[in-house]
Please model this.
Amino acid sequence: TSVTEARGAELPIAGVAGDQHAALFGQQCLTPGMVKTTYGTGAFLLMYLDDTPVTSTSGLLTTVAWDLGDGPRYALEGSVFIAGAAVQWLSDGLGLIDSSTEIEALARSVPDSDGVYVVPAFAGLGAPHWDPFARGTIVGVSRGTTAAHLGRATLESIAFQVADVVDAMRADSGLELPQMRVDGGAAANELLLKMQADIIGAEVVRPRQIETTALGAAFLAGLGVGLWSGVEEIAGSWTADIHVNPAADPKQVSALRSGWNRAVDRARGWADPADGYLEPH
Model:
């Protein structure tokens, strides 16, 4: 074990992990197929695979989730570039809301997005599309489109992008996710969680402790110094706050996702590849 000195005291470095991997462990995603999603500026997903790695053919990365001394455990990883940043754009860029916290009330003020889709490809598209030349697109606008429809479509865009990654994880792993555990700032938005559960067709769970990166780092460090005897002993430290089950008509979800796919197709390749990758202004 490496040590470092701080004011004369030796402190063991007992756990080392990247932020998303620590969050996966903090969320106690220990059953193959379980997914954790962190909603931040972007959205970051990991699916736990256990001790058998899977080589992705669907635009994802295979990564080591952790190694507790008994061999590496693996995960599939996918990153969405723009998630919470799309809501911030409604505030800072368009002035439709005063702050991101107002998006849920705005989106709830209409029953649906009335055929409007927002593809927030402001910096291209990440997993599973990997298109640096995609650009932000709004389609389906009519004379009856309001700020509320645009706000709801922007919120839906987060759930759609996450669902695209989930589909890739299902295809690569052959696993059906038993549950998605969520954290990050936008996990406070219960309408988003409902949208997410409906679109992926699986239960979404938010824990009481949403600082799961810090929690996972603490779990790993505690295991490293023997504070806990093993994973089984800390399993009860994770507790759920809310469970959201899918409730939408699958046919309706299929139609919505078909519209989303058409919108993504229109966003892709918008910047001219001949000009090289241009950083968006």
